[in-house]
Every structure is written in structure tokens, then in C-alpha cells.
Design a protein that fits this description.
The protein is α+β, with helices and mostly antiparallel strands and 178 residues long. The chain contains eight helices and four strands.
Length: 178
């Protein structure tokens, strides 16, 4: 949905500038996560798109569901999104905001797919090695993929390290074909 990302980008930039100016990147990230979950809920989507509800009613509903956790600036941000009918792009705003926050903090996202569950010591050692290799703090997401047969496949940005048995077998098959 490139169009949604294009629409969301200026809002994410504005939220990031406001949050970094306040020194509140963490609270804003949490608030956007909460708001994105609210906006993605099917019942809330029906209310947001209901032509019988005014903008003030939609705003009150969103802020009411979000609870007291929203600051005045975050509530104003919701008001702007409601006024411009942009609540549906809150998930994209959240994603772009997190990307900006991670870049600002020197953090990169990494996905580790393993054939078997990794124990804590192994995972800590792997993360330490990866952080040294990429010279950045990594935000790790670990998943189990039994189709790898053994080993791990690591993705950091657009770089993939395939140390899985399946990957090695695929490389050998390609080499044998040549």
C-alpha cells in the first residue's frame, strides 16, 4: 500500500519532530502503537467510517478508548488525523515513526528465523555477535521455522545471512546444476 505510506509520511515526520523536541520518543511510540491498534480494530473502523458520526464524536471515541495515556499533544495529533480523515493510516504512521526513531537511536531491526527454539545464552551470544558485525544495536524478532531443517536465517535490513541447512542444500543444488 504505497499510497497509504505516502499519505502517512508527513504525519509520521510531524509526530517524530514533536516527540524528539519533547524528548518523548518512547511515550510517542507507545501512544502510536495503541492508536494503531485502536484504528485497526474492525468495530472501530466501522465507527470511524460511519457517516452518522461527527468528527468530534469520532475524536471523543478514539481518545476515550485510548484512555488517559495520551498527552495533550498526542490528543491534538488525533484531532488532526480525525479532521483530515487519516485515522486509517495510523498503522503506517506508527511504522514510519518507529523507523525514524530507530534511525535516530542507531537501532536496526533484525529477524532471526531458527529451525529450533534458541536458549537464552545462545540468543544473547548471537545478538552480541550480530551487533558487533553491524555496529548497531539490534531490535530482534525471533521466529521458529521448521522448514529450515537446522541452523538460522538472519535478516538485518536488506542483508540476509542464511546459515540454515535448507539454504546450504539449495546452494549445493545450484552449484551442481552449473
Amino acid at each position: 500500500m504505497a499510497e497509504n505510506v505516502t499519505i502517512a509520511r508527513p504525519y509520521a515526520d510531524a509526530a517524530f519532530k514533536l516527540a524528539s523536541g519533547e524528548g518523548a520518543l518512547g511515550p510517542w511510540s507507545e501512544a502510536l502503537e495503541r492508536l494503531a491498534a485502536i484504528a485497526a480494530d474492525p468495530t472501530m473502523r466501522a465507527c470511524i467510517n460511519d457517516p452518522n458520526l461527527s468528527a468530534d464524536q469520532v475524536y471523543a471515541l478514539i481518545v476515550g478508548v485510548a484512555g488517559d495515556a495520551l498527552s495533550a499533544d498526542q490528543q491534538n495529533f488525533v484531532r488532526v488525523l480525525v479532521a483530515n480523515e487519516r485515522l486509517e493510516v495510523l498503522p503506517e504512521i506508527r511504522d514510519l515513526f518507529v523507523d525514524l526513531k530507530n534511525e535516530h537511536e542507531g537501532v536496526r531491526e533484525a529477524q532471526i528465523a531458527s529451525a529450533f527454539p534458541l536458549d537464552d545464552a545462545t540468543l544473547k551470544a548471537l545478538v552480541a555477535d550480530l551487533e558487533a558485525k553491524f555496529k548497531a544495536k539490534l531490535d530482534i524478532a525471533v521466529s521458529i521455522d521448521p522448514e529450515l531443517i537446522g541452523g538460522v536465517r538472519i535478516t538485518v535490513g536488506d542483508e540476509v545471512i542464511d546459515a540454515s541447512v535448507r539454504g546450504k542444500l539449495a546452494n549445493m543444488a545450484a552449484a551442481l546444476k552449473n
